[in-house]
Fold:
Amino acid sequence: MNSLTPAVKRNFSIILGLAFICLIFNIPQSIPVKIHWGKINWEHTFYRPELNFRLGNFDFSRKFDFKFGLDLAGGTSLLFSIDTTDVAADKLDQALESIKGNIERRVNLFGISEANVQLLSDRDQHRLRVELPGVQDADQAVSLIGQTAKLKFKGEVDIPPEATESATIYDVFAKDTGIDGSHLLSAKVELNPNTSQAEVALEFNQEGAKLFKEATTQFLNKRIAIFLDDFPITFPVVQSVIPDGRAVINGNFTNQTAKTLSAQLNAGALPLSIEVIEQNTIGATLGRDSIEKGIRAGLIGLLLVCFFMVGNYGYFGFIATLGLIVYGLITITLYRLIPITLTFPGIVGFILSVGMAVDSNILIFERMKDELRAGKPQNIAMELGFGRAWDSIKDANTCTIITGLILFNPFGWNFLNTSGMVRGFAITLILGIFISIFTGVFVTRNLLRVLVPKK
Amino acid sequence: MNIMKFRPLFFSLSLFLFLASFYSLIRWQFQPSIDFAGGSEYQISLPQISDQVTVEKLFKDNNIELASITHSENGRYLLRFRNISPEEKLNLTDALKTADKDFQELRFITLGPSLGKELLRKTVFAIILSSLSLLIFIGTRFNDFSFGLSAVLAMFHDAFILIGSFSILGHFFGAQIDSLFVTALLTTLSASVHDTIVTFNRIRELKRQNIRLDWVSLANQAVTETLVRSINNSMTIVFMLFSLVILGGDTTRWFALTLLIGVVCGTYSSTGVAIPLVLFLKNRRRK
Structure:
């Protein structure tokens, strides 16, 4: 060991330090330690460090937990196409923003935390991606979120007594008040302070307030029905003239029915119609199952690779295995740090990259063997092997990085794939390659320098 | 090691794989997944119902004709049918809940047909773009025409056989072409080029050292020196992917298998296709 140069010693310390830091990030959230030995009574719980750090507008706070995609965590992902044909071009941005906000509000009504609503626009094609993590029984949510939202307020007309039998609800409420969803600002559930009953409060915009005053005057003591997509959702009786555009619908609401009604009214406040073009629901059991199977497959594969390397290259193979462990630690630490949303194809990408990571070691070892065969001493052969292999490592990995970048589509170009699954695979593959180059040429090399006895 | 004497064998093997792929593609085409064709895929658990006919009838009552039904252990079903609306889905789930109180939804995907065309366009574009970039890369690395052309042809050889084997797997085992297949295909292309480049680098290095040696001897020496590395490297990838195919579950079995076929094919093609092609082109030029 005393013949080691300071640089090698320094590099070796860097590797040990790096491995240690990575290990800390990957310990469980908290480890309780209890020592009762003779007079020593020591109890302490170690916590994984968390980052709480802000710089200007950038928040560096991290909990260092893995982020799982919907396919692993379970949940529902929806893609809606937005019909924008009815909207004037200058109002489009506003309308799209409001539909996004409205859908977010509707999603929140279901009490889904960490839901993600994203507007995807490509020229004149507009879509909404809605991700609802943890939601399995999503049908209810999907059908409400996806309802085409066109709201109409219609007044009751007098039906001649002889026609009451055959009159449909559309005959009864035949008088259009001119009020529609665009006049409605919002609806919300309130509790009546006197009766503690749930009520739905409506708020109209200026024009809506004017129209609503006219309507309540005209239909005083009659009913005004509210239609959502030509489907009647409520028919309150007008009890007084409402001049200020603030109305309350009360009745025998439970909290739940009031919530649904206000959600439907809110849905109608937007004139854009949307349609589900993709629904993807993954049950939590399947996700957990996938994680377990993926980890098991990865570990068994890794074990096989280690045996293979030790069997083929002996002590060198063992050192390569150590390098591989450092590789694994760095990789999963980066997954936590960046953080990378892990999907199942992402796990496949990681597993594939482990297989590829060994490649740089094999290239180096084979070159080393060549040099040894040519009669060079071991330490010279080692350095020559590294030097010679570097060209091949560089060339070989460039190809994979090119393809990886095309798959990952870093700029989110619309003419390329934007699917989360494909990108999930590409990101772990690219990351894996960069880290494998690092471990191949830096970690394994220095481990060899230190751990192989000089002859 | 005189590996190049097996050239007729390599040629026959590649020709056979090529023709088999060609035949299967003409005869059976692909089984496109709902990614491309649109439709629904529904994975459910109905522990009380062990009879497929009951399930079929249940769906038929909801106006859904099943395109395929797979029944696996503990009452799990994988069903494929047309694209359905949220309302239809709601009715369907209600009917299933009534039929079996232990009904559980494992996975549900439905896709409209418009998305499929879009994905197809994006996919074709991605394939062209990555082929072109690999071509450019090969071009800059090998300003020798024979090497460049051979690497490219070997790459297309792998791609074609991978597509063909999926057509065969699709016909006999119901494997489907989805966006992950395309991902695996592109990864395979790069792995194929990757392997070829390592071997070619060695040939060029040897050529510089022994300028007088003929191409066949050079190729033999280069292959002898790189074959162990090439096979060992593939073996590590094969170990990882193979355990994934066996243990990784249904979700990505085909994805892992595609990568596996691609890696094996890519390793073979650099020795069995790319180098014989280089020799062929070099010998033809000399005459």
Summary: The longest strand of chain B covers residues 104-111. Chain B touches chain A through 70 residues (CB under 8 Å). The domain at 39-111 of chain B is CATH 3.30.70.260 (Alpha-Beta Plaits). DSSP finds nine helices and four strands in chain B.
